[in-house]
Design brief:
single chain; alpha+beta; OB fold (Dihydrolipoamide Acetyltransferase, E2P); 5 domains; five-stranded mixed beta barrel; 13 helices; disordered N terminus
Length: 642
């Protein structure tokens, strides 16, 4: 399943690379100027790995705390905990003294029958004694199940729970993917009331909904998406204004007209906050009646949109912007591959000479916009991506590289431009909304990056975005280019949603929001509602004071969980594919070195793994043999090919 290809800027969640080794972040050593322990207490989020764990501490940037021993029984993965640090030692270690908040109310794992009792053993927590099975749940040895916790484990008492769902046999690909959702309590099915509300709008735009809007049927509007996309939430158009000047139109599905604040539909969209894109399915934020139909900008049908018009010259300079409520009728649904063909001057069926010229101009504007953004200090990570191909039963069959095309960059640049324009409009109007912010990296992280680069023979001390740009430029030519890029990504903070406007470091934007994907992101819906207030045609009341302050962290957390589920599912299915290739030899690059071995990125797969006992420099190219795989853990067993 595909989604709008994500921008390769740092406006995304950091990728999860090799599993964390015992010892924590950077070996678990304290941050600069910090002592390992001495009875002090810290708080953070627990990462649970069966026999040990790590607490990712607040404030971010400190080294993680290694947890082992009985206190690990108290909490499960994702819980916020208070930890008492142990004195002495070369790394921060401690024990959990309190659980501040639970990440979830359910646990997922295999069922086992022990001494006449059923136990459920989660991957990231203590086993639960099953009190009972809900109606329709048939227990089976080894089956993966979901249990609602009725009593959490303590140091001396077992945890207990009620099994609410039996997912199926372990090892079934669909069960693995569903487990990734259930472990994070990401819902799939919509409640009947929510689905009915979405279906109640019908399939066609009504005259009442179109009243008072600017109709754009005269414009050559088109969508550009992946070949298997269903939720078309953005479209573009281009009009000549004068020699060397154009008006770019970015037209976004007006979800806010249908999803009104405070309705059942709105509450469910807020709860989900994002669509989840998995190898074998898409879990939408909105019911299909809206996401795949009435809000989707399909060709040859009227659709409600919010549009931003941006006047540009050949250098990519913006001369003016305007926002409006609009109605469009998309003239063509293009795939990225078709636009790539047009950009390269090759023929595509059913494309008029005027539209061909329009795409050519769009291509020139993209180059100018990319150049201008880079000159401002924006970062661009060109890392290879791989898609797990699945069959109709959800069984993974292959790993296919997804090349980043120029057509992807074209849409990325136009969407960034639209997001910036709307953010500036909201700030100028003093209208509260959710902004997408990206803080600059901590100086200590850049110092660590500089040391790691030195191990690769790169003499650089990146202190700002220009310095990072220089390293990323070098990555394209360096033998260990992938390792260089990974190191740069690790040095950055994560982008997040906030009610308080702030710059976006990775995009070099002074103001930024998410406006262009309201079908799959709740913050975009919030921005649309705010923009309608600015335009003088609100679709509901302004949000209550304080609500935005809560909505930002909520949406950021749901985004994190969705990305985590996606990674978990992809890693599991990738491991299943590679597990069928035992004995195959692959090229690999060392991305992290530890005392017990080295982690490597596997060429041609997008995967990674640990080669135990390997003594190698960071960035070294090696040949490794696949020895086996553990799809449940998403891991591949490797050994050095001599």
């Amino acid at each position: 399943m595909s989604r709008r290809r994500r921008s390769k800027s740092s406006d995304r969640r950091k990728p999860s690379h090799a599993p964390r080794p015992p010892g924590g972040r950077k070996g678990g050593r304290p941050g600069p100027g910090r002592k390992p322990g001495g009875g002090a207490a810290v708080e953070g989020r627990l990462e649970h790995h069966k026999s040990f764990g790590f607490v990712v501490t607040d404030p971010a940037g400190d080294s993680d705390v290694f947890i082992k021993g009985p206190s690990l029984r108290l909490a499960a993965g994702g819980d916020r905990v208070r930890v008492r640090l142990n004195p002495g030692g070369q790394r921060r270690e401690g024990e959990i003294v309190a659980v501040l908040s639970r990440a979830r109310a359910t646990m997922v794992g295999p069922l086992t029958r022990v001494a006449g009792r059923w136990l459920l053993s989660p991957r990231d927590g203590e086993p639960l004694v099953v009190e009972r099975f809900a109606a329709g749940c048939v227990p089976a040895e080894g089956a993966i199940a979901v249990a609602r916790v009725s009593a959490w484990p303590s140091l001396s008492v077992e945890g207990r729970g009620v099994v609410e769902e039996v997912l199926g046999a372990p090892g079934a690909p669909r069960v693995r993917v569903t487990s990734a959702l259930r472990e994070r309590e990401l819902p799939e099915a919509f409640a009947p009331a929510v689905a009915a509300e979405a279906e109640g709008f019908g399939r066609a735009v009504t005259p009442e909904a179109m009243a008072g809007r600017r109709t754009l049927f005269h414009l050559p509007v088109c969508t550009i998406d992946g070949s298997d996309a269903k939720d078309f939430d953005d479209a573009v158009s281009l009009e000549p204004l004068a020699p060397g000047r154009w008006r770019l139109g970015v037209h976004i599905a007006d979800v806010s007209w249908y999803v009104r604040q405070g309705t059942e539909l709105d509450r469910e969209a807020y709860r989900r906050a994002t669509s989840v894109y998995l190898p074998d399915r898409v879990v939408p934020m909105l019911p299909p009646g809206l996401s795949d139909h009435l809000c989707s900008l399909m060709p040859d049908v009227e659709r409600l949109t919010l549009s931003t018009f941006i006047d540009l010259d050949e250098s990519g300079r913006v001369h003016g912007t305007e926002e409006a409520e609009t109605v469009i009728r998309s003239a063509r649904r293009f795939t990225y591959e078709e636009i790539e063909e047009l950009l390269n001057g090759r023929p595509v069926e059913r494309v008029s000479p005027a539209l061909r010229e329009s795409v050519a101009v769009m291509g020139r504007l993209q180059l100018a916009l990319s150049r201008a953004r880079f000159e401002r200090g924006a970062l661009d990570f060109d890392m290879p991506e791989y898609r797990v191909v699945t069959d109709a039963r959800g069984v993974p069959t292959d790993l296919v590289r997804r090349d980043r095309l120029r057509s992807h960059r074209l849409i990325e640049e136009f969407m960034i431009l639209a997001n910036e324009a709307v953010a500036r409009r909201l700030i100028a109007a003093n209208r509260p909304a959710l902004h997408r912010i990206h803080p600059p990296p901590d100086p200590q992280k850049l110092a660590i990056l500089s040391r790691e680069l030195g191990k690769l023979g790169v003499r650089a001390m990146p202190r700002d975005a220009r310095g990072l740009q220089a390293v990323l430029r070098l990555a394209g030519e360096h033998p260990a280019g992938d390792a260089l890029t990974v190191l740069c990504v690790r040095s950055l903070k994560q982008a997040q949603y906030s009610a308080i406007p702030a710059p976006h470091y990775g995009l070099a934007s002074t103001a930024y929001c998410h406006f262009t994907s309201p079908i799959r992101r709740y913050p975009d819906l919030v921005v649309h509602r705010a923009l309608r207030h600015v335009l003088g045609r609100p679709a509901g009341p302004a949000p209550a004071p304080g609500w935005l302050a809560e909505a930002g962290p909520h949406c950021s957390e749901r985004e994190r969980l969705a990305a985590e589920a996606e990674r978990h599912a992809v890693n599991a299915l990738r491991a299943e594919v590679l597990g069928r290739r035992v004995g195959q030899v692959l090229d690999a690059v060392v991305t992290r070195v530890e005392p017990y071995g080295a982690f490597v990125e596997l060429g041609g797969t997008g995967g990674s793994g640990l080669v135990r006992g390997l003594k190698a420099q960071l960035g070294a190219r090696v040949r490794v043999r696949i020895d086996g795989a553990d799809p449940d853990e998403g891991r591949v067993a490797l050994r050095l090919e001599r």
